[in-house]
Specification:
two-stranded antiparallel ribbon, 11 helices, globular
């Protein structure tokens, strides 16, 4: 049974659900078997999100393909990329994306002590000015309409160079695609970080109507 909560603000109404809005189906065939084997090898289990996307194998294959290609890019520092996609997930309210990327940072040997503060990065003192600019860029890109300023872009261009800034933009854009799909489909955290006994992620502080809506969307896990 699906439990729903509706949050209303002056500008927007958001509805959260604790179970996927489309029931997962079985991954079948050669592709489905390969996906399940890869998921169990990497994650220890097959996430519900894969069962949801299995209703449309062609889209699932395309999404996984571009995801692997974007992930394989290496012009941008890995820690910066991790902070950027986590900040994007936190802003949009995708608990699955946030949990998975926190878990991934741990598995990749990145700075998980810093990563756990990403959802509340504006109030945290552990980040460098460059790291803060990267997360500000990720959030600005994720607004509707996007709110990236010339000043912020210029600082990042000077600090990162054109190739890394383009890669940062692409990784934030792909996380927007993934996170917004997950939120719309009602896909929530699978508890990867909990399984690794990682310290709980910091909670995102809401500072505006938009932030409050984003937090509400990702509040169920």
């Amino acid at each position: 049974m699906t439990t729903q909560t509706t949050t209303t603000t002056a500008q927007t109404t958001t509805t959260t659900t604790t179970t996927p809005r489309i029931p997962p189906t079985e991954l079948t065939g050669l592709f489905g078997t390969a996906v399940k084997l890869a998921a169990r090898r990497m994650l220890g289990s097959v996430p519900d999100s894969m069962g949801v996307l299995a209703h449309h194998p062609a889209l699932m294959r395309a999404s996984m393909g571009i995801g692997r290609k974007v992930e394989a890019l290496h012009e941008l520092d890995r820690d910066l990329a991790s902070y950027a996609v986590m900040a994007t997930a936190a802003y949009i309210g995708c608990s699955w994306c946030l949990d998975f990327n926190y878990y991934k940072a741990h598995n990749d040997g990145l700075d998980e002590a810093k990563a756990r503060h990403v959802p509340n990065w504006r109030a945290a003192s552990v980040f460098t000015p460059l790291e803060r600019d990267v997360m500000a860029y990720a959030e600005a890109m994720s607004q509707t309409p996007p709110a990236v300023t010339d000043e912020l872009s210029a600082r990042l261009l000077d600090a990162l160079g054109p190739a890394a800034l383009i890669e940062l933009t692409a990784k934030v854009a792909f996380m927007n695609l993934s996170a917004r799909m997950n939120v719309a489909l009602g896909i929530h955290s699978d508890g990867f970080a909990d399984a690794c006994r990682l310290p709980p992620l910091e909670q995102r502080a809401t500072t505006s109507t938009t932030d409050a809506a984003a937090s509400a969307v990702g509040s169920a896990s």
